[in-house]
Amino acid sequence: MEIIGTQPISLDTAIELAYRNNEELRIALFQLERSRSGLRAEQAQLYPTVDLSGGLQTASQPTFTEGLDESLTSLTGRVRTDYDLGLSGERAARIRAAEEQVRLAELQVEQTRADLRLNTINDYYAVQQAIEQIRINQAFLDEAERNLRDTELREEVGVGTRFDVLRADVQVANARQTLTQATSQREITQRQLARRLNVPPSINITTLAVDIAGTWPLSLEESIVLAYQNRSELEQFLVQRDLNEAQRQATLAAVRPNLGLFAQYELQSLLNPPARFDNSTDDGFSLGVQLSWRLFDGGATAARAAQSETDIQIAESQFESTRNDIRTQVEEAYYTLLANQENINTASVAVNQAREALELANLRFNAGVGTQLDVLSATSELTQAQGNLVSAVLDYNRALARLQRSVSNLAEPSDIDIPL
Could you please report the per-residue DSSP string of 65-131? Predict the structure, then answer.
């Protein structure tokens, strides 16, 4: 997916570009693949190992002939297979720990995707707000310039004053400065969004018109319950607890008895046997059982196991703390959403009233019963009301996005293709 030149993109397109291009998500996906490779390495312990070794050796030994040494060259080879029966439980514990590592990486991908989605939405709304501020300030500047021209004409025909012209001129200057600041803010937000999407900085990203993003159908209690069920951050601590338990079992396996089977075939052959040797080749096959048991290690295993037990307690405490934080996040987003929903209604009424007030102020001023101050005030109030409406809509959309993030449950990371 590519953006060529300057063109508006939808919010869904921006999110899709972020999923495809963002470096943080790509790193999380690579870490997931790394964890899966680690699991495959641990699962390989379920199979026996086969080793092949060999050597070529030349040695000299004295002969019965005085003053002469005889050189002997021997070729050796050995094939050995070993299989751990898993009596100590270390193998099973390491595999279980690797499985938990994979799950942690999957949850990290899910969390990274959810955070990336929210950050992209906020960056997109920031661009929208900057563009709308330019539109509003440009309209205010146009109105101020029109008022300045009318005021100058009134001064020329003798029905206006120099004071009115100066005030109108100051209003135009202030409007131009505000427009310049809004233009600068648009450039900044566009660069931030382009950085989030990881697209070339030469591309000017614009957005669609501001509109209400949607509604939230759940109550506060339902939202909190859904967040408890779906948030990957909570499951991460549960998985971390299970990982620590698996690591504790793997540590304790160091002082448990372990049993293994082995089979070996060994071949030794003399390449230049002396005449006194009837047989130059010797081979043999062996099969056996090996038992290993560390009876004392100075308490090191017990100390490392105690560390894992402490890590389990830490994960459980972090789970409770994060659970309370998630509840607070849901509540804040929910109440902010309701407040901005009311603000949208209030700001919409205020815009209509301010527009009507400006029309009346112009009519009164043109009829000679109003003052220029009334027109300037009405113009400024309309600009403020329009800005308040845009802010209310975008704040509502941001609160909706935060609420969606608070109860997020994205697609399974295992279904995500890793970009190369």
Answer: STT-EEEEEEEEEEEEEEEE--TTSHHHHHHHHHHHHHHHHHHHHHHHHHHHHHHHHHHHHHHHHHH
Global pTM reads 0.82
Q: Is the distance from CB of 141 to CB of 168 less than 8 angstroms?
A: no
The single residue listed with the structure tokens 């972020």 is: 18
What is the number of residues in the chain?
A: 420
> CA–CA separation, 140 vs 132, rounded Å?
12
CB–CB of 399/340 below 8 Å? yes
Amino acid at 216: W
Q: Can you give the pLDDT of all 420 residues of the chain as single tens digits?
A: 554 556 689 999 999 999 999 999 999 999 999 999 999 999 999 999 999 998 888 776 665 555 555 677 888 899 999 999 999 999 999 999 999 999 999 999 999 999 999 999 999 999 999 999 999 999 889 988 988 888 888 888 887 788 888 988 998 999 999 999 999 999 999 999 999 999 886 778 889 999 999 999 999 999 999 999 999 999 999 999 999 999 999 999 999 999 999 999 998 887 766 655 555 666 789 999 999 998 998 999 999 999 999 999 999 999 999 999 999 999 999 999 999 999 999 999 999 999 999 899 888 888 878 877 788 888 889 989 999 999 999 999 999 999 999 997 544 433 434 333
Q: Residue 263's beta-bridge partner residues?
A: 81, 287
* CA–CA separation, 330 and 325 (whole Å): 9
CATH number for the 7-62+71-415 domain, one of 3.40.50.12160, 3.30.420.40, 1.10.4160.10, 1.20.1600.10?
Answer: 1.20.1600.10
Alpha carbon distance 61, 80 (integer Å): 31
